[in-house]
Amino acid sequence: MNSRGVTRAGPDAVVIVFARAPVPGRVKTRLAPLLGEQGAARLYAQMVERTLSTALAARIGRVELYCSPGIDSPYFRKIEKRFGIRLRAQGRGNLGDRMYRALRRHPGAVLIGSDCPALRAADLRAALRALRAGADAVLSPAEDGGYPLIGLRRVSRRLFDGVSWGSGRVLEQTRRRLARLGWRWMELRTLWDVDRPDDVVRLRRSGLLSRARQPSAASRRRARP
């Protein structure tokens, strides 16, 4: 890799899913006033499982679940068996550090979070098409100023350093870094995350979680290394 981080997407993509162990009091804490700590953790676990089902349904390549704080959670081991996916540890550092390491491992990959039930398999396929058409990066903007999806054909630490992770400035700061790098990027449709009590009401009305399906046998085979 040279100083600009040039890499090329391979013939088959990898979908990287970032998730945390759904431990009450440690995930989706802003939802606790509405759902309680146990309820917030259960909802997050549902969203993780929907995200994995979506990633498998896209059928664009293998799916890997990057776990925090590590892969030894009983929940993650259950998910590994249920979905037939590979587990990896996110490791130390802030979100940017962890995303950079994961994407550096898999040039041409698409990385998604686990709190965006509105994400569809078609979004993942569109991201891969954009990378194969020559985009250096592809993003799905979020209504809150972040992004629930990023795909990279090139990988550079400069894209992630100094970003105000967790703020409403993440997307704009990322756009500025892409421009400074001189990269070509594409933005897909705007999505919404589930972070606040109002988002839970929206989620319930959407019916997105109730429409989640179990992964098919073919999709599970596709996910295996």
Strands of the biggest beta sheet: in what spatial order? 3-2-1-4-6-5-7
| Stretches with pLDDT under 50, minimum 5 residues | 1-11, 212-220
- Structural shape: globular
Average predicted confidence as pLDDT: 90
N- to C-terminal distance: 24 Å
* Class computed from helices, strands and strand pairing: alpha/beta
What's the SSE pattern? Answer: EHEHEHEHEEHEHH
Question: How much strand content do the residues show?
Answer: 15-25%
Q: Classify the helix fraction into a percent range.
A: 25-40%
Task: Give a verbal description of the structure.
Helix content is 40%, strand content 15%. It has 225 residues and is α/β, with parallel strands linked by helices. It has a seven-stranded mixed sheet with strand order 3-2-1-4-6-5-7, with helices on both faces. It has helices spanning 32-58, 74-83, 95-105, 121-132, 170-181, 197-206, 217-223, and strands spanning 13-20, 61-68, 86-89, 110-112, 137-140, 149-152, 185-187. It starts with 12 loop residues before the first strand and ends with a helix. It is globular, with a radius of gyration of 17 Å. 43% of the residues are buried.
